[in-house]
Specification:
alpha+beta; 5 helices; 36% strand
Length: 146
């Protein structure tokens, strides 16, 4: 599989699952023994079903979520994707503060390992403090203290 094909797998995943909300894409592009690392999850995300639950919950909080791929670099079995996410905090979740109705735009990166054309492992990072500040969940002073 070429580097361009690996980057395309990640873009298809972001578009299909995160933007379009088509959780069937998880079955097609994610390995059965997937392991995900995300600051929003708290603990590792193990397997496609748990990943689908995590994505569904996040998209429920931000139902108008969009993600723009800003840059991608592929090397070996790894693809690094820099992205910008935008969404309005409209949904409820037991693990997130009540909806504020405010819109946020944050940047982040995901490092994705592709094995046999499927996503085997991923490591995500994004500016959560800025996200919480934009949503009015943290005020400027609290965000700067962290």
């Amino acid at each position: 599989m070429t580097d361009e094909q690996k980057k395309k797998v990640v873009r298809q995943f972001l578009q299909g699952v995160w933007i379009d909300g088509d959780l069937g894409v998880v079955d097609n592009l994610v390995a059965p023994d997937f392991l995900g690392h995300s600051p929003g999850a708290g603990e590792p995300i193990e397997g496609p079903e748990t990943l689908s639950q995590f994505i569904s919950g996040y998209r429920g909080i931000f139902p108008d979520l969009t993600i723009r791929v800003d840059r991608q670099i592929a090397d070996g079995d790894m693809v690094l994707t820099q992205w910008t996410e935008r969404g309005t905090h409209l949904g409820e979740s037991p693990h997130f503060p009540p909806p504020t109705g405010r819109t946020m735009e944050v940047t982040g990166m995901v490092l994705t390992r592709i094995v046999n054309g499927r996503i085997k492992e991923s490591w995500s990072e994004w500016n959560m403090l800025d996200q919480l500040r934009q949503l009015g969940i943290l005020d400027e002073q609290e965000a700067n203290a962290n």
